[in-house]
Design a protein that fits this description.
It is built from 8 helices and 8 strands, in the order ββαβαβαβαβααβααβ. The chain is an alpha/beta fold. It has one domain (about 30-265): NAD(P)-binding Rossmann-like Domain (Rossmann fold), CATH 3.40.50.720. It has an 8-stranded mixed beta sheet, with helices on both faces. The longest helix has 29 residues, at about 135-160. The radius of gyration is 18 Å and the shape is globular. The mean pLDDT is about 90. This is 3-oxoacyl-ACP reductase. Belongs to the short-chain dehydrogenases/reductases (SDR) family. InterPro entries: KR_dom, NAD(P)-bd_dom_sf, Sc_DH/Rdtase_CS, SDR_fam.
Amino acid sequence: MRTDAVSPRDHSPAPPAAAIGRHSTYPRSLEGKVALVVGGAGAIGAETSRMLKAAGAKVVISHLAAEKDTAAAAALVAELGEGHAAFVADVVDTPSLVALRDTIAARYGRLDILVNAAGFTKPVPHADLDALTDELIDRMLQVNWRGQFATIRTFAPLLRASGDGLVVNISSIAAFTAVGSSIAYCAAKAGIDVMTKALGRALAPEVRVLAVSPGVVDTEFVPGRGADFNDKVSASTPLKRIGNAQDIAAAITACATMLGFSTGHTIQVDGGRAL
């Protein structure tokens, strides 16, 4: 299943590696580049898609097959316009990722940017050990760690072929504060930070790997969090507000347009929450 508005195949060659190095100018244009935003139907994924498109990239988003996600993806593609597309894929289903990779290769001939914006959580009080069941732990790690790694593994050949590939993972300050929706979620995000560092070495120099680490963000990602929670967090955050999807998307986009000499690092976007 797909919801797309794709122009004819664009197999523009990647720029030679020698042209990407010390003489880069900033902000970098993303004209001619293709970006995949995994989880693009969500709040952060959608804002990231808009910003990458504004910077010049052709954007492909992946989303789950649920009716709500399909409708959101279709609306976003219609907004983005010609040359952008959305396809169903699930980060816990590697064959669906392989199929998506093959589709992108056939339609665009390249992939330059991968944004891992898919995720899942369920609030569990840290002191309630019995509520954090084996099944929930497995699901949390399956989606939030294994899924991101499987996505990178699947698309690494296309990103390497770009010669100037970029992966941006979505982490969380829960990775190092150990304050988050559940202990398993904190652990999964700590794993993302380590994975980002390890892959920053392993995939260099053809691919840079960065992570963006939000604090509390005003989206519907964490079930049950409302205005009272957000107000309380805002009052105790140095910048006196919580983040929004645009804040995180701007940081992700900056990884592509401004941070050309960075890899393996995690960038905090939390209003000072972790200070």
